[in-house]
Each structure stands twice: as structure tokens, then as C-alpha cells.
Write a structure and sequence with these properties.
Length: about 650
């Protein structure tokens, strides 16, 4: 086995790899950028070397510098994790040429599978079903494709070199085709430096099922069963589970066979994942499945496979890379129970899932459960990297219990200081489609939309206001301790909504003024975690919890957070910011779409910015003339900077 392993990555996956290496007695070397000096992966590794500035291009993607460190520190293997350089065949080839072992497949397999068109060609002889489609390199004019009457809609255009759900577009009918082709080509060129595209039939109501395989250098290939990753948003996975209990065993066996054939067709070695889209519209025992792509690295969702099989996949990767034979035979692969993983992101699901940056002021993990995390309390979440903070992995005897455990853990989880998708994950996990196991790849979008629209009712605001006063000891022994005709006022913030509430108390009752309406409140009972009262004759009963300045009201599975605005006049800048475009997050300006003096309508895109590997359009908050465009292309902007002023 290896003496010293370099982990050319950061965050949770770097920590994950270091833990296994340590168990195997391998020394570990971490690399870190400016913003990661005190990160968890650096503290965990035996040694750590500075690799460059925070920008990924200058650090975790800086091949030259990574090589220098590897040679200087005398490592005998490099594990790339996922993302960054993990699917860069130039990197893996150079690593091997230097006499260092790349923990992953041969560079040729990475290269072949890195391009969706080449991948399909390479395995065409293996008899694997593929989504019908075309590929297209030449520029589109009035090309044959536009006149191709055999094209079936809806269809999907993908960047051949794409990944991570970027550069994909659904086309519903012929009139959208040419425009969509041009825009995917543009996106593909700017993101992947290659504008080749492929066009596929869009499988409606599809499920994403993937098969994990492992192959050694002696021709042994086994499958490690499947994962259902149908809960996706913008083609990116959110919740994953294993096994896929909605797919009949007979179909799964065929998929295992297909995955092994794919791997054999390209002489694959090490761990890999063959992804399929399953058309569930047919009869249960006759579901069609099609090859999508092969990921030539460790997957983010690998822990669910580890949970049900009791196998350490990183250990397996290291053993294969070190030239050992697979220790597991196919008949040894037996699953136990059901596992679900939730990806926890620093983002705001109510603001179009915009990534969130800032300091993690509090981090409380649920207990007795697997947590793969690369952040700790007090860490700063920066805009340079992917917004995933870590993963929560639950395992239980069956799907129902695993789901219940996931719900409990998500409720127990506390992350403060930044926005996260915890509440959204909780909702998703309790969503009927997920509970009933009928999730399809497009289901999450609709659930996200519903989530965004959930608004707090007056009864929720009223509960929060009463609770804040109770917590300030102004309601004790069922009696109000605030008197006077003028009453008292509170200002509550619920997500982006502010609400001013006036309360006039009289012994045991309350008159509450809220948004031009008034309510009589009586029979208030507050006990540990439950508030009950009568509002205009209706009995209201909610569970609640308090967390620092936040009161959280639970109503039938929905959670409403309320924050008390102490110095609200000073914080209320909605008026002075009217007509200004404010940077929602720290990032870089990619494109300026309008000039000074130009007229714009409300909602028109003005700037395209990038943060945490995603692009965002910043739109005009009102119609008017651009008074001042304050930024330039490529400029780095900070959260809350004023970028544009509109007259
Ligand atoms: P990437 O390399 O960006 O991950 P994939 O080809 O793996 O791209 O596709 C990402 C996701 O898009 C899949 O998991 C699936 O949900 C969806 N998808 C891809 N191809 C199709 C298709 N032909 N029909 C329906 N959905 C598809």
C-alpha cells in the first residue's frame, strides 16, 4: 500500500478520503488555498501545503503547483476526490508519467467518458440501450437538423463536454430549436471551451438510476448495486437513496449487466458509476432504461452504497490503485436496509436557491448518524467554491424508517449565520411524491416552486409576536405585564417580509393590529414548545421553538421562522435602495448587458454574475433609465455592493 497520499481537493470529500487513508496507515498530505488555511481538511491531514490564492483556477486547479508539491513532498499517490481535477485526463496522465499513482481509472477512460458523444460511440458495440439522438459540431445555420422532421419533441440539448448539469436545455417544440441550440453552444464554449452539442429525446417522467461498479487491473469487474438519484434540481442531485426500491429486480439485474458491459468496453479500472435514465411510463416489468454517461470518479453520493453494503469505497479505490485484486466477489455483495443521503447547501431556497456566504456562527449536528462535513463552527463560507457544506447520511432497516430518521435529523440540525437548504430538505423528505417513492427527475422543481410560495399567515405572525413578548417576560402567569392605551409594537421579519405588529394588552386578553386589520386574542396558553390561543373565535395551536433571536413556528409540517427586528429603523434600507441593483452575493461580473443612459423595463436582465460555480442574472428592480452602471466585466464584487442605479 502507499506510504503517502496527496488529497488534491478540499471540503468534505478531502476529509472523507483522509479518514480512510489514516485507517489504512497511509500518511496524508492536504493542499489548501488562502481561504482554507484553517479548514477541517487541513487540520485533519498529517501535513498540509499552501497551493495558491482562493480562486480555484489558481489553487485546486493549478496543476503545475500541485505537481511541485507532490514531488517536493515525495507522495506516491494522488486522490483527486470529485470535481476539480478528478475528471481531467491531462492531469491524470501527467501524474502517471511522473511515476505517481492517480487514484482513479486510466487517463484514456477519463477522456472517452468526458465527452458524451465519444462515450456513446465507444460503447456502441456493447449493445447498451441509448437515448435516441444526434450529435452536432458544425455551426447551425439552416442545417439539415432544423429540417429533420423525424425529431421528436420534447428533446434535450446537452453540451458534449458538459457536466454538473450545466449547458443543458429542454426544447418543447420546433420553434425553440434553433435559439436553444445557439444558446447551449454559447454556454458550452464559455464553460467547457468546446461548443459541440448532442441532442437527445427527452424522457418524460424519467428516473435517474445509477450503478456503481468496481474493476481491478486483472479484468475483474463487479457491480455494487444501484442508487436512485431522481430527486434533482436543475439536473443536480439533492436527495439520493439506495437501493432503488421502485425499480423491479429484473430490470435492475439488466442494468447491472449493462453497467459491467460499459466498463468492459473501455477497459475500465477502479471505481466508476454508470448513469441511466429509466422510462417509468411503461409496464412495471417492461421499463426501458438508457445509458446517460459514466462518471469516472468517486461520486458525491457514494456513502449510501457504503451504508447498505458495509464496504469502504475509498479503501477499495486505494487498493485497486495500489495494484491489488478485488477482495470482493460478486456473490459477496449483499445489501442491508435502506440508506438516504441529503446534500446540505449554503443557499437560500426562497431566493431562487442563491448561494449564501458568511460566517457559520453556530453548527449543531444531529447525533448518532453519519455526517460527511468539511466545515466547522466559526468557518467562513466563501464564494469561490461549490456551496455544498456536507452530507447527512441515514441508514435503517427499511425505506420508511430511513425516511423517518432523515426527518428527525433534519429537524435536529442547526446551522446559523448563513442560509441553508435544511428546511427545504425537510420538506422534500416529507413530500408525498418522495414518501410514495414516485419521484421523477423533474419533480423537485414543482416542489421548490410550492415551497417558495409558502407564506406565513396572520396567525403565524400573531403567534410569533406573542411568543417574543412571553420570552421577554411580558406575559407571565397568563397575565399581560404591558399596560397602557398605546400598547407596544414589534417588528418581525419572516424571510424577506417585514411586518409591524401593535399589541394592546388587557389582563388576559390582547388586541392585535396587523396589516390594517385588528384581532381579538384570548385564552393564551404557552407551555414547553406549544402555544395555544383563540383568535377571532378560532382555536390556534402550534408547536414552536426558540433559537437566539429566532422564533420558529411549526404548522402541519411547515416551518415559519420569525426574527425580531430590534433596531429596525436603522436596518430598513428598502427605501434608500429603491432603483438600485445590489449584489446578492460576493462573486465576479461575467457580462454587462446594458449601458449608461439606456432605458430598461422592470425585470430586464442587466448583469450576469458568477458565484460558487453558478451564474446569476441580476435584473432591473424597476423600469427607468440607467443612471450609473458601476461595475465592469470581470470585476470582483462584494455582497451588498451597489452595482447599478436606475433613475
Ligand atoms: P451531467 O453530465 O451534466 O450530469 P447528464 O447527462 O448526466 O449530465 O444528465 C443530468 C441529468 O439530466 C440526469 O440525471 C437526468 O435527470 C437528466 N437527463 C439527462 N438526459 C436526459 C434525457 N434524455 N431525458 C430526460 N432527462 C435527462
Amino acid at each position: 500500500m502507499f506510504q503517502k497520499l496527496m488529497v488534491a481537493n478540499r471540503g468534505e470529500i478531502a476529509c472523507r478520503i483522509i479518514k480512510t487513508a489514516r485507517n489504512l496507515g497511509i500518511k496524508t498530505l492536504a493542499i489548501y488555498s488562502d481561504s482554507d488555511k484553517n479548514s477541517a481538511h487541513v487540520l485533519l491531514a498529517d501535513e498540509a501545503c499552501y497551493v495558491g490564492p482562493s480562486e480555484a483556477r489558481k489553487s485546486y486547479l493549478n496543476i503545475k503547483k500541485i505537481f511541485e508539491i507532490a514531488v517536493e513532498k515525495n507522495v506516491d499517490a494522488i486522490h483527486p476526490g470529485y470535481g476539480f481535477l478528478s475528471e481531467n485526463h491531462v492531469f491524470s496522465k501527467k501524474v502517471n508519467n511522473m511515476g505517481i499513482i492517480f487514484v482513479g481509472p486510466e487517463w484514456k477512460a477519463i477522456k472517452t467518458m468526458g465527452n458524451k458523444k465519444n462515450a456513446k460511440q465507444a460503447i456502441s458495440k456493447a449493445g447498451i440501450p441509448m437515448v435516441p439522438g444526434h450529435s452536432l459540431r458544425e455551426n447551425m445555420g439552416s442545417e439539415s437538423l432544423l429540417n429533420d422532421k423525424t425529431l421528436e419533441y420534447p428533446l434535450l440539448i446537452k453540451a458534449a463536454a458538459g457536466g454538473g448539469g450545466k449547458g443543458m436545455r429542454i426544447v418543447l417544440n420546433e420553434s425553440e430549436l434553433e435559439g436553444s441550440i445557439q444558446s447551449v453552444k454559447r454556454e458550452a464554449l464559455s464553460s467547457f471551451g468546446d461548443d459541440e452539442i448532442i441532442i437527445e429525446k427527452y424522457i418524460q417522467g424519467g428516473k435517474h438510476i445509477e450503478v456503481q461498479i468496481a474493476a481491478d487491473h486483472f479484468g475483474n469487474i463487479i457491480h455494487l448495486m444501484e442508487r436512485d438519484c431522481s430527486a434533482q434540481r436543475r439536473y443536480q442531485k439533492v436527495l439520493e437513496e439506495s437501493p432503488a426500491t421502485s425499480i423491479p429486480q429484473k430490470i435492475k439485474e439488466k442494468m447491472y449487466e449493462a453497467a459491467i458491459s460499459v466498463s468492459r468496453a473501455i477497459n475500465y479500472t477502479n471505481l466508476g458509476t454508470v448513469e441511466f435514465i429509466v422510462d417509468t411510463s411503461g409496464k412495471e416489468n417492461d421499463m426501458s432504461f438508457y445509458f446517460l454517461e459514466m462518471n469516472t470518479r468517486l461520486q458525491v453520493e457514494h456513502p449510501i452504497t457504503e451504508a447498505i453494503l458495509g464496504i469502504d469505497l475509498v479503501e477499495m479505490q486505494l487498493e485497486i490503485a495500489a495494484g491489488k485484486k478485488l477482495t470482493h466477489k460478486q456473490q459477496d455483495i449483499k445489501s442491508r436496509g435502506h440508506a438516504i443521503e441529503a446534500r446540505i447547501y449554503a443557499e437560500n431556497p426562497r431566493k431562487n436557491f442563491m448561494p449564501s456566504t458568511g460566517k457559520i456562527s453556530e453548527l449543531r449536528f444531529p447525533k448518532n448518524v453519519r455526517l460527511d462535513f468539511g466545515v466547522k463552527q466559526g468557518d467562513q463560507v466563501e464564494s469561490h467554491y461549490d456551496p455544498m457544506l456536507g452530507k447527512l447520511i441515514v441508514h435503517d432497516v427499511n425505506r420508511e424508517l430511513a425516511q423517518k430518521k432523515m426527518s428527525d435529523c433534519l429537524r435536529e440540525f442547526k446551522i446559523k449565520g448563513i442560509n441553508t437548504n435544511l428546511e427545504f430538505l425537510y420538506k422534500l423528505n416529507c413530500e408525498p411524491r418522495f414518501l410514495e417513492n414516485i419521484m421523477q427527475v423533474d419533480s423537485v422543481e414543482a416542489i421548490a416552486e410550492k415551497f417558495r410560495k409558502e407564506t406565513a399567515l396572520h396567525s403565524h405572525f400573531a403567534s410569533a409576536a406573542i411568543l417574543f413578548l412571553f420570552l421577554q417576560n411580558k406575559f407571565e402567569k397568563k397575565m399581560w405585564r404591558i399596560w397602557g392605551e398605546r400598547g407596544t409594537s414589534l417588528r418581525l421579519c419572516h424571510h424577506d417580509r417585514f411586518c409591524e405588529i401593535k399589541l394592546i394588552a388587557k389582563e388576559r386578553t390582547l388586541k392585535l393590529f396587523l396589516a390594517n386589520d385588528s384581532y381579538e386574542v384570548s385564552d393564551i396558553e404557552i407551555s414547553a414548545g406549544v402555544i395555544e390561543f383563540t383568535l377571532r373565535g378560532y382555536t390556534i395551536k402550534y408547536e414552536y421553538e426558540r433559537e437566539n433571536e429566532i422564533v420558529r413556528v411549526f404548522d402541519n409540517g411547515t416551518i415559519f421562522d420569525f426574527e425580531l427586528q430590534q433596531d429596525y429603523e436603522a436596518r430598513d434600507n428598502t427605501e434608500i435602495n429603491e432603483g438600485k441593483v445590489i449584489a446578492p452575493i460576493t462573486g465576479t461580473v461575467i457580462k454587462i448587458l446594458k449601458k449608461n443612459g439606456q432605458l430598461v423595463s422592470m425585470g430586464e436582465p442587466l448583469i450576469i454574475m458568477e458565484a460558487m460555480k453558478m451564474e446569476y442574472e441580476l435584473k432591473a428592480p424597476k423600469a427607468g433609465r440607467i443612471k450609473k452602471m458601476k461595475v465592469k466585466t470581470k470585476e470582483i464584487i462584494n455582497q451588498n455592493d451597489i452595482l447599478v442605479e436606475i433613475d
